[in-house]
Amino acid sequence: MRNAKDFFTPLAVGAPAPLREIPARPSRAIHFFDPSNAKMAAKIPAMAGQVDVLLGNLEDAVKADNKEAARQGLVDIGRATDFGPTQLWTRLNALDSPWFLDDVTTLVAEIGDKLDVVMVPKVQGAEDIHYVDRLLAQLEAKAGLQRPILVHAILETARGMANVEEICGASPRMQGISLGPADLAADRRMKTTRVGGGHPGYLVRQDPPRGADGTSQIDADRSTYQQDLWHYTIARMVDACAMHGIYAYYGPFGDITDVVACEDQFRNAFLLGCVGTWTLHPKQIEIAKRVFSPSVEDIAHAYQVKEAMGDGTGAVMVDGKMEDDASLKQCLVMVELAEQLAAIDPDLRSAYAEARAASTAIDAPDAQEK
Ligand SMILES: CC(C)(COP(=O)(O)OP(=O)(O)OC[C@H]1O[C@@H](n2cnc3c(N)ncnc32)[C@H](O)[C@@H]1OP(=O)(O)O)[C@@H](O)C(=O)NCCC(=O)NCCSC(=O)C[C@](C)(O)C(=O)O
Ligand SMILES: [Mg+2]
């Protein structure tokens, strides 16, 4: 690991200076498309401005025979499209694949000025990020790029999971981490066959009632509660990202038809601290945008607490609940996110503005200094 003094020094002569802070650009939906699929690719230019991130996927889900067509397809889309406020990302092939080197050298040279983030799959440890970091610096210098391309790691191996904190802090380029539930499940030898989401077998069961003779009635009807297979992983990923000032994302939800469970999984991730998710099909985009935008009610409450808390210290009562410095900080997380989203989304801008106006108009009659 580089020492603190040279952490922000470019890794190649002529490469752009690393960023000191990762920009908090809205990335509620990272929308995946296969640039070698002509029908899908044709839809992408019209999606610019409608989705926070468009990601040209080169790795899994692209047939081996189509890898070069996907790379070239992404170059063509990147060159021809005005993305407006939408970011352009890519998922590169894995570091040990026959395609990674050509992916990265071609994309940086051809559309490096358009690419915001490269996603690196199956990251095992900081050494993978160090390799990508240096290579990107060399390629950026060669291409004369003015701003650094950021790196996003996918958490999809047990070793990557064990090293998640060092991965997050491995380079100033680290923008974030996504959960890769399918590869991670396989690598961990989990007994699931799905791409993300829950499993009905992973549950807890209510204790058996006692019979008149005091024995346990194990055959009685008992409630079961399905548990979240991904809770530990997402929570640890969120902590590692927050500790290093980067962003955590849920990954894919493969059951495209089950929009209800998809929404639940996205919301769990949002509540736990993720800023966005992947969308694999157009029908998941609306869900992601809605779930990863704070509700108008929460924003109204957040502004109300902000107003009531004055200089931000002390304790007050708002709507019968105690609010203090720490609850204000939570509200400010929401307000900050709302302001970022309002800057790019006109519908949210007016909804949040109304929430703010309504909350500041409230005289907070039961708000009082303690
Ligand atoms: C699921 C699939 C096969 C269903 O594709 P389909 O054509 O059967 O669906 P459809 O409902 O019939 O499609 C309706 C229309 O939408 C279009 N369409 C469909 N999808 C998209 C899209 N994404 N973007 C833009 N347009 C899309 C499609 O072309 C069609 O257009 P049409 O009306 O003109 O005929 C298809 O949606 C797809 O290939 N999605 C992307 C899959 C993908 O990227 N997977 C990799 C990420 S997950 C992963 O890798 C795991 C991980 C992290 O590595 C790990 O956990 O380890
Ligand atoms: Mg994977």
TrEMBL record:
SUPFAM superfamilies: Phosphoenolpyruvate/pyruvate domain. It comes from the Bacteria. Substrate binds at R91, E156. Keywords: Lyase, Magnesium, Metal-binding. Its cofactor is Mg(2+). Mg(2+) binds at E156, D183. The keyword Metal-binding applies. One of its GO terms (biological process) is oxaloacetate metabolic process. Coiled coil: none annotated. One of its GO terms (molecular function) is lyase activity. Residues 197-218 are annotated as: Disordered. Residues 30-194 form the HpcH/HpaI aldolase/citrate lyase domain. This is CoA ester lyase. It comes from Arsenicicoccus cauae. The lineage of its organism: Bacteria, Bacillati, Actinomycetota, Actinomycetes, Micrococcales.
